[in-house]
Design goal:
Elements: H1 3-7, E1 9-14, E2 17-23, H2 24-37, E3 46-50, E4 56-57, H3 61-64, H4 85-102, H5 119-126, H6 131-146, H7 148-167, H8 174-182, H9 186-193, H10 198-208
Antiparallel strand pairs: 1-2, 1-3, 3-4
Length: about 210
Amino acid sequence: MTTETLTSRLTIFQGHQRLLQADRLTVLRYLQNHDELHPGGSLTPLWVFDDLSGLRLDLNWRSELAPAAQPPALLDDDAAPAPTAAAAAPVEAAAHSRTARAVGRPKLGVVSREVTLLPRHWDWLNRQPGGASAALRRLIDDARNAHAQQDSQRAATEATYQFMQAMAGDLPGFDEACRALFAHKQSAFLLQTQAWPDDVQAYLHQLSRPIWPV
């Protein structure tokens, strides 16, 4: 698992009750412990949701918690012989080549992709300081900053809907709550969800927080 995956926040529900909200590794260990205590499965299954996207996840703790395979250690009798001077020379040359390439401007994690533009767009980009690539990066960063709040609101709306669809589809007022959600009418949304189970309401409030004005 990557560091980003390990630090992602997840929430476990059993029915309409929230059991745990923690990082992925803690959640996986909780699922493992639950399955070991209930080898035949529990009457009400555990559902795991991603706190960022609101999506229900299908986690397999057996594969994710399995220890990584380690290469067998070499015994003294099997130890590889020391390289000869002739064999060591290409290795030293390759190391020197890598060192030489490391000098200079560092790679910034850029990824090459194809972009299709009209000639007038390329003409304008090529006249910008730093060239076309630098100009495109600045334009994208400016757009991200300008629309950060709108993007956050849209992502929160989608995450809230994803959770509602999975957890609250059979609860009273679901359709009306969905309409209020997408219309960004907070008072109507709270009204339609106020009779829902407490843990469901609390998680909805967490997911939808970026939608509503402060």
